[in-house]
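Record copied across here:
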Amino acid sequence: MNDGFKIYTKKGDKGETSLIGGKRVPKFHDRIEAYGTLDELNCYIGLIRDQDTDMHTREMLIEIQDRLFTAESLLAADNPTSLASLPHLFEDDVTLLENEIDKMNEQLPAIKNFILPGGHITVSHTHVARCICRRAERLTVRLAQHFDVDELIIKYLNRLSDYLFVLARKFTHDFKVTEIPWKARMT
């Protein structure tokens, strides 16, 4: 047991938390909502990684989880001095997602309709992660209306939701599940 570190500080008992840099804000602050949703997404991606998937996909998901922690820390920083000591996202991180999307798409049938999420537990978890990613993106865009936010975070989240959609389709193919197209009822 580590005697020098306690997980609880009791500093948040009155509904506030500290940003990187020391500023105290309410736990419902836009910054907390944005990086808290990224944390939720990160956990969900861990759940997908724990499913019966191929090694390459697991390695990609670990890479994505690492980038999400980077984005979380950047959103939690309250000043330029704090940002200077943090890791950063790079355009190559977005390009990696694009390349992975393209590779997966080469193996998948063309999509002609919206598809109903589901068909296998791993597919469903991946679609839930995609939705959480979209929410994280919306919250980050909202945050960027009032605070400086690295545009690359928004771009990365946008591409990550695309990646997760295609990954769900790949899992549908891998697990030999039928994609069910959405057929709009017009009457």
User: Anything to note?
Assistant: The chain has six helices and four strands. The mean pLDDT is 89.
